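Q: I'm writing up a methods section and want to include an example of the input and output format. Could you take the sequence below and give the corresponding predicted structure tokens, formatted cleanly so I can copy it straight into the document?
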Amino acid sequence: MAETRALPPEALKALSRRSDAEGLRALARHAGLIALGVALVLAARGTLWIWPAMALLGAAEISLFAPLHETTHRTPFRSLWLNRLVGWVAGFVLVLPPEGFRLFHMAHHRHTQDPERDPELIGARPLTRGRYWLILTGLPYWLSQILGLLCTAAGRDRSPWIPAADRARVAAEARLYLLLYAAVLAASLAAGSLLALLLWVGPVVLAQPLLRWVLLAEHSGCVLGNDRWANTRTTLAGLVLRGLFWNASYHTEHHLAPGVPFHALPRMHALVSGRLAVLSPGYPAAHAEIRRGLA
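A: Here is the clean output for your methods example:
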């Protein structure tokens, strides 16, 4: 990739080393946060404290998008089976089947900020102030994902980024997800239990705006076109968000070299930061920049 020629080949090779140990450490921290959130929700049942507890649990659950995203590149773990397993579980929590998402995301990398070929832009309405706030609610995401899952499971998804040879496999994955969601619902109704609502559905709905806040900053307000130094934003997030989202805020670096694992992105940033065209000192600043460009 031409954009990575700014890095010496030996440096890029060193940055691209994958490690089960690094991935498992990050996964253990993330699982620990989810376990803590579950404990807080269970302890807060019957009180108003359940709402902030669910929001905190939701933040830990919704940020599973980070390892899901990393597993589409097969980078967080050296072992392929670990990448697949973590991606599958994270995708289930987020209603985002990993194989379909992988094809979507690979097309996004090939055609970043190309309105006619980037899946994130194809058919998207212009980002106005009103649409900006609507996206941040997370409601368009849930509507799109649920309808998309049903369409894919029915075998009717003809998205251009899904090759004809992969459609049956992507549809089968969507059907399996729907079956498992139906099983969770049936078990909850049979047991008269609200645990799935309190420990999963409610938290991820409450926390979806956090994920939208992070994802909107990645390309919004950046130039259209294939210049990866300028069509993607790196955000210098604080320690909490960097940890929660597995260094995803180093997003230009990720687009420059998608094979570099999450744990090496801070080191890559140190090497290329002087050349980044869009660099924000934090998410509030990034969103202020985005809003300034909206009608």
